[in-house]
Amino acid sequence: DHQTILRAWAVKDFAPNCPLYVQILKPENKFHIKFADHVVCEEEFKYAMLALNCICPATSTLITLLVHTSRGHTAPWEAFRQLTGTKQTLNRESQQSPEQWQKMYGRCSGNEVYHINLEESTFFAEYEGKSFTYASFHAHKKFGVCLIGVRKEDNKNILLNPGPRYIMSSTDICFYINITKEENSAFKKQEKHRKNHESKLSYHGASRLPVHSIIASMGTVAIDLQDTGCRSGATLALPAEGGKEGRRPSIAPVLEVADSSSLHTCDLLSDQSEDETTPSDDEASAGLEYAKGYPPYSPYIGSSPTFCHLLHEKVPFCCLRLDKGCQHNYYEDAKAYGFKNKLIIVAAETAGNGLYNFIVPLRAYYRPKKELNPIVLLLDNPPDMHFLDAICWFPMVYYMVGSIDNLDDLLRCGVTFAANMVVVDKESTMSAEEDYMADAKTIVNVQTLFRLFSSLSIITELTHPANMRFMQFRAKDCYSLALSKLEKKEREKGSNLAFMFRLPFAAGRVFSISMLDTLLYQSFVKDYMISITRLLLGLDTTPGSGFLCSMKITEEDLWIRTYARLYQKLCSSTGDIPIGVYRTESQKLTTSESQISISVEEWEDTKDPKEQFSCRGNHRNSTSSDQSDHPLLRRKSMQWARRLSRRAPRHSAKTAEKINQQRMNLYRRSERQELAELVKNRMKHLGLSPAGYDEMNDHQNTLSYILINPSPDTRLELNDIVYLIRPDPLTYVPNAGPSQKDSFCNTVGQDTREETQL
């Protein structure tokens, strides 16, 4: 950082008018380069993303895909959104993939954030004078774009989902998520063609006829497509049951201009304020009546003040130590505290100033008080006093000196009661003699955690993205081998995200700070990308701007059926804007015939044609000893053996498969039993109850991935997690309440809070 700062000063001295883009590591060095036009601090972004990964799964993958230029896959419903005028044919990610999830995931990865002036836009011009949520829903309904924010012409602040009270103006700059920007879309060309023939049209509906025809062909019959631009609220009604005349209630319409009743339904603080005015007896006895305000102490200069849940009085430093009793309490392990919510454990080498940005997003005022997770910092080295001064105001934040190398330390800090464990890359290992060996210790430690605590959600930071292929490594996993070959193909095609189909990255379980390098590059063309990313991560808070959160699809929500209907349901009720879906599916890890055949075909595709011909010519003359030197011959013999097995009696094949499955289950059970006995013995030795460990389930046979701005007809599935941008709750509450006027707020925080309330 010192060298970067000196270089930035040199450029500013030599060419004062030259735009300056600076990327630094430590947040405490930001104020030295505050004169730069664009600044990216790695530690700030890293810890904020790792924190949001714990409450919004795979946030790091979501942000990485948004700041990268990915080609995506063109699906049939997107045919009318293809780029026009391109000179070369684009090879699109996962286009030839046999897996359906890879096709969907690869297609949606092409979405990026773009901007356009409202009055110049085909997507949004007709919504001038309408509410923001109305414009966002109908733009997605008609064009498949996701309007996420706006900026006033005379204001530099970007507002993410300002809510239904915000009225769109002709001079507003709109920010939206789409496969391509509007200027390059087929809609722009279609609009010019329509204007040239507008005089020949005798009715208003014809101008939208091509769009209606295309959307109707998608099969979204639930959407009312007639004259969407003129009606104030098109409803997404549920179909009738059994052909009966009566119909179930439809989803409420999204109003052009929000009225008083709709504003009341969008009061996102109603439940929380009720919590605060009438606390339960248990909460009152436990002293859980938190205040809301600005943290009185920041560990470094330049951190943005964030409205948070805080304690009325700071906690003594002795009480911050999780595993050591003191005169105020006698707890010495996580179970003794009796936390109602599961823990979030952060394993780091030192408590740097950037770690403060891990705590702030998890204690922001818009997080429901009942959903706050206790945070445990597992540190190799004791924290400094100034860092303890910064965290002692936050509720349920503790630290413990220990290492993930030590099983006893993991058990004491409550790993068996944890929902997420974040393993931060150690600075001391970044300077390894062999470049890619910098992650060796971290990978092996995480693999040990993965084997001992299979249900624990582990989020790992790596120095090199290429090492993510070793996360949760299995030596004989044909599925991972097939993904490895797919990655090689994508790299040969010139993909910017060749590793995007790796299961740990798609599921958001691995992150590398180098993935954010493109954020600084994109800000050269999109000067708003850094601001939008900081708002999404909670690093900055702008009055009236929304925040990123998530909701889970339960059985009660499946009646909504499609993503388009969910969009309307959210816009008409809470004012939320959905931007994507995090989906988890079951994964078969057995070496099935389909996986083997797929891997053979992919291997043959990568072979040289001459080599394939020579192999085929010598196939009949080869012997069993020669097959060991030719992988293709071995795999061909496996296919030949499968064909023979298909001709054999069915009962023998089923019996053999059943025996193999029983042997595999016996092997796995014995290994897991051995590991379980090891953990239980250590827990008994430490005086801990093994009850929590017995309840841990195995989630190894699942795969998860993100769908950014999926097509409107995408079907919702059980346990889908939807990413939402929720409006700022303070914009709906004129008076923030006496709990937000605590005396410990500093002067800067007081001014910012008053501006927020206004």
TrEMBL record:
Query: What is this entry's stated membrane topology?
Result: Multi-pass membrane protein
User: One GO CC annotation, please?
Assistant: plasma membrane
Note the superkingdom of the native organism. Eukaryota
Give one GO molecular function term: intracellular sodium-activated potassium channel activity
Q: Which UniProt keywords apply?
A: Ion channel, Ion transport, Membrane, Potassium, Potassium channel, Potassium transport, Transmembrane, Transmembrane helix, Transport
Principal place where this protein is found? membrane
Region Disordered, as annotated, extends over: 600-634, 734-758
**For the RCK N-terminal domain, which residue ranges apply?**
341-481
Where found, per UniProt?
Membrane
Quote the biased-composition stretches of kind Polar residues, using this chain's numbering: 737-750
Name of the protein: KCNT2 protein
What species is this protein from?
Hippolais icterina
